[in-house]
Amino acid sequence: MTDPITVDIPHKLGLEGARAKLENGVGQIAGVIPGGSMKSHHWQGNTLHFELEALGQQVSAQLEVFDTRIHAIITLPPMVALFASKIKSKLGQVGTKLLK
Questions:
Q1: CA–CA distances in Å: residue 94 to residues 2, 25, 72, 78
Q2: Is the pTM of this model over 0.70?
Q3: How far is Cα 53 from Cα 60, in angstroms, rounded to an integer?
Q4: What's residue 56's pLDDT?
Q5: What is the mean pLDDT of each run of 10 residues along the chain (100 residues)?
Q6: Which domains does the chain have, with CATH numbers?
Q7: Contact 69, 11 (CB under 8 A)
Q8: Closest CA to 51 of 36, 64, 65
Q9: For residue 8, is it left (φ>0), alpha (ψ between -120 and 50) or beta?
Q10: Which contiguous run of DSSP H or E holds residue 41?
Q11: How many angstroms separate the Cα of 7 from the Cα of each of 16, 94, 96?
């Protein structure tokens, strides 16, 4: 495994507003990984955990919701890690758009 990608995405929705936006837009998040498709997701407290499949590989992620930001951690297998910088950039863009 490679080092996980971490991204902080600011928002002005408050905790509950951000959770609602994430719940409604969770499917869009799979699109930040090339060839990604959502396999499962669940909430544990204020953290959204989900599993994606991309390029035949498992990708796990956590989105921890705070009052003014989302802290994302995505663990990539080596094959998918080749796209790490592109994934990090796209996650920031998609996340910002989703949280408006």
A1: 23, 10, 12, 23
A2: yes
A3: 9
A4: 87
A5: 88 96 87 86 95 89 96 91 90 90
A6: 5-98 (3.30.310)
A7: yes
A8: 36
A9: beta
A10: strand 37-44
A11: 20, 12, 11
Token pair of 69 as six digits: 């930001």
According to the model, what pLDDT value does residue 1 have? 57
Give CA–CA dist 18/77, Å, rounded.
Answer: 28
Cα distance between residue 96 and residue 93, in whole Å: 5
Closest CA to 99 of 30, 8, 3: 8
CB 88 within 8 A of CB 5: yes
Count of alpha carbons within 13 angstroms of residue 2, beta-carbon side = 18
Q: What is the residue type of 74?
A: I
Q: How far apart are the C-alpha atoms of 46 and 63, rounded to whole Å?
A: 8
Q: Return the residue matching tokens 């758009």.
A: 97
Q: Give the C-alpha separation, 2 to 25, whole Å.
A: 27
Residue 48 has a CB neighbour count (10 Å cut-off) of: 21
